[in-house]
Amino acid sequence: SRTQALTSTALVFFDPFITFDREIELFWKPKFSGATALFFANRYLIVVYSAIGMVPIANVAVIWTDRVSLQ
């Protein structure tokens, strides 16, 4: 359902914010390696995927709001 999609997406966006300080220490400061590339791909591709996935939900919310306000 839409509520489940919004909840899971909120968690995907929330996690990078609460762990960003550790991410800087562990992955941004040391020398770049294959593990670093894998971490960034795993970490940020899911954020991009979730953001793209939110577009249809946002459009439905706008259409639903317009219909409700017109009545």
Short recap of the structure:
The protein has 71 residues and is an all-alpha fold.
Task: Write up what this structure looks like.
By secondary structure, the protein is mainly α. It is 89% helix and 0% strand. The two termini are 25 Å apart.
Q: What's the structural blueprint in terms of helices and strands?
A:
Elements: H1 2-18, H2 20-28, H3 34-70
Based on Cα principal axes, name the global outline.
Answer: elongated
Distance between the termini: 25 Å
Give the class from helix and strand content and strand pairing: mainly alpha
Residues in β-strands, percent: under 5%
Describe the biggest sheet?
Answer: none
Q: Secondary-structure element order, as H and E?
A: HHH
Kindly report the average pLDDT value: 77
Using only C-alpha atoms, the radius of gyration works out to 17 Å
Unreliable stretches (pLDDT < 50, length at least 5) are none
Count of discrete alpha- or pi-helical segments spanning 4 or more residues? 3
Roughly how much helix do the residues carry, as a percent range?
over 70%
Q: Got a strand count?
A: 0
What are the salient characteristics of this protein?
71 residues; mainly alpha
